[in-house]
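User: I'll paste a sequence; please echo it back and then give the predicted structure.

Assistant: Echoing your sequence first, then the prediction.
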Amino acid sequence: MTKISKQTKLEAILAYHAGFASKAKVAKHYGISKTLFGMLLAAYATHGPDVLLNPPAITGEFRIAVASWAIRENASLTAVAAKFGYVGMAQIVKWKEIYSKLGPNGLLSIQKGRKPRMTKKKQNQRNKLSAEENRLD
């Protein structure tokens, strides 16, 4: 999947609002999925260009608010985008699953980023080697 720039998304939204083509055609022209484009349009209609330029900060409380509201209202991804100005489809689906299984505490414990692949033991060995190399200099 290709990363689509904020500028391209904004151009697509403006092209659609200018009436150049249908949602599907504009999305295809700019290489954006139809679902994401629908979410972008809904979020743009509610929050304006700030939704692309200054997206909401992702905190534990934000995750809980999104997931609980989406489950309670049985809301679509587009409705979530319109209400909260967040268009991360995969994250929203994942947050709803976690909230359903583990409750709010499950969303508070999410840490950003990947788990480290290198163990502490290997890191220490590399650090020791570097110290020995420094002594040789």
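The longest helix spans residues 120-136. The radius of gyration is 21 Å.
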